[in-house]
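Q: How would the structure tokens look for this protein?
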Amino acid sequence: MNKEYNEVVIEGHLELAKGFVMGFLAGRGVEGSAFFDEACHIKGKDATGHVVRLISAGDNVSTLIIGSGLYDLLVAALNRRPQVIALRITKARRVLSAAFTCTFKTYSREVSAQLREILSCVPEGVDGASGFELHEKVDPEGKGHEFFTPLHDYELTGKGRISGSVKGVLDLYHQLGRFEVVKLGVLELTFGETL
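A: Here is the predicted structure in token form.
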């Protein structure tokens, strides 16, 4: 597993950048080492402290998180034919760690079991247990009531913060984001040196 990651800002058309990077990775048989997802929001702990989208600033600037070993190969690939490939790396820096907060409420025992499974099997280098609160409520009087009534026989609520290694945190962010009942906070990245 790639332990170090870089944030890379690419200037050029969004679809071209995304297609080039995904083709570049597929050509090397690499999966899971680049996070190129327009649904994520990132808050950087740097001098500007601004919030950016993982794919951001319109059609001409794209940002992705990529394994540091692949970063050197990507730079070399883009530099090989700059007149043919209309993409240029404008900024790159190390990503030291990642974190996010999330909350959820579900009345489904099946969804509850899936969320508990995800939260109990966090990847190595990720802290998901400390500070995460789960509250389960069982009310037998609610059994048999319709789904949209105020009374339910089962409820699981949760809130907390997940932090640690970049890949592990981003993987969990995507896993939890697939559930409609989960509200994800922004991804907070801690940056290291500029490359």
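Helices lie at 14-27, 68-80, 109-120, 166-177.

The radius of gyration is 20 Å.

Upvote if useful.
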